[in-house]
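Batch manifest, entry 17 of 40.
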Amino acid sequence: MPVCIRNMNTIRNLPISPPLIAPSLLASNFANLQSEIINAEQGGADLLHIDIMDGHFVPNLTIGPPVVRSIRDVTNMIFDVHLMLTNPAGFIEPFAKVGSNHITFHVECKNNIKEVIKLIKKHSMSIGLSVKPSTPIEEVFPYLDYIDLILIMTVEPGFGGQSFMPSMMPKVRTVRKKINSLNKKIHVQVDGGINVNTVSEPVSAGANMLVAGNSVFRAKNGIKDAISLLRSRLSS
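Output type: structure tokens
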């Protein structure tokens, strides 16, 4: 069963267990966003992952605050906004104002990390830090007192449909071990190539939140069936 509860308005409030499924809007049919989102929520999604790309930090462009505003009335799911931006600081307030519940940004960005964290906290959103595949996971360790989520990219960020990188699992194990040693409640999220064949590996390594794009929104038998299959694989 999904853990999406109407009054859980940030990722900070979500439980670490059981594993959470966050369909990635990037893989949805943008000509029919309303029904795609409703189908994901009714199909058992725990939250909605929304990728924001600027064409500089990653070689792709996606959506901006106006689209997030337009879908906010469609669902009460938590909006898990992932800023793949060179300068995320200038976009914290715009995304907060249109109904984002959570912001993840990259440790590799050009802004001061602690200043961006302060901006997100100012707007009462939960806070995440992400690392690209080439970035050591230890780069996030200085910020563990201030964040609610760590996102480990299991593909090169920028485009959907890439293959899962099992070589990222040592990062997952390392950061989960560090979190546990500090007795902190921090979600470990993975994003990239998650499907029924790969979903169990990151959970075994210590991840508890799984971003799934093509395997959910472009599933042959529909969104509900796809989410159900992911959950059944996790419980087997």
